[in-house]
Specification:
Blueprint (H helix, E strand, L loop, with lengths): L9 H16 L9 E3 L5 E3 L17 E7 L8 E4 L5 E4 L3 E4 L5 H12 L8 E4 L5 E6 L5 E4 L4 E2 H7 L7 E10 L2 E5 L1 H6 L6 E2 L4 E6 L3
Parallel strand pairs: 8-14
Antiparallel strand pairs: 1-2, 1-7, 3-4, 3-7, 5-6, 8-9, 10-13, 11-12, 11-14
């Protein structure tokens, strides 16, 4: 037997949707993504910014945050780290593959699996994956760094609070998609055009001096 739930009070629904979406995305640096609503199933609501598929897709280990707006009583926010098989597990609909999908694509799949089988009206909001790169080795603050826009190797080192006293500034390694290039800090200072761009997913590793 189908579990059908209706959502009464259109004005309250619209206000709740706007408030919840605002709270979820306030301060979020990811690009705006479309929101799928069963007011017109499968259509885009809002979403005038860059589509999330252009800036990032979920990977194994990423935290996926899903908000379901509309049914009564209100459903709690679902937050889960993607499993090794790339999936998350949602109430009623079970396993949903998240890895490899943008926030917009995942929103649509979740919406279409809930509506109309379990709910007659539902809005799905999925938070985009955080964009980051990592800096390790002989820097003062190792670890992942939020990607805040155009970034160079110099800016990445600054985001890691600079070099330690043991850093080999002639041997800075930049790894991207399995390929590594070596960069010399001193040459970059002399010729800024040599300062490579950093993109999400990159890893910067500053080697230690050999005494």
């Amino acid at each position: 037997m189908k579990l059908l739930r209706t959502f009464s009070g259109h004005g309250w629904f619209v206000a709740s949707m706007a408030l919840a979406a605002s709270l979820l995305f306030t301060g979020c640096r990811s690009a705006e993504v479309p929101v799928f609503s069963s007011d017109a199933p499968g259509t885009l609501m809002g979403g005038t910014g860059t589509n999330a598929s252009e800036v990032g897709r979920f990977a194994v280990g990423d935290v996926v945050t899903v908000m379901l707006i509309g049914p009564e009583p209100p459903l709690p926010v679902h937050e889960e780290r993607t499993k090794e098989d790339g999936s998350i597990t949602m109430d009623l609909i079970g396993s949903v593959r998240a890895a490899g999908k943008s926030a917009g694509e995942l929103q649509k799949e979740i919406h279409d699996r809930y509506v109309p089988k379990f709910y007659t009206r539902l809005t799905v909001v999925v938070k985009s994956p955080e964009l980051s790169y990592s800096v390790g080795g002989e820097v003062k603050q190792e670890g992942p760094k939020a990607y805040l826009g155009e970034t160079t190797l110099t800016k990445a080192i600054q985001a890691a609070q600079g070099f330690t006293d043991f850093a080999n500034r002639k041997n800075i390694r930049l790894t991207r998609a399995g390929k590594t290039t070596v960069h010399n800090w001193y040459k970059i200072q002399e010729k800024p055009a040599l300062d490579p761009l950093i993109i999400p997913g990159d890893r910067v590793d500053v080697r230690r001096k050999v005494f």
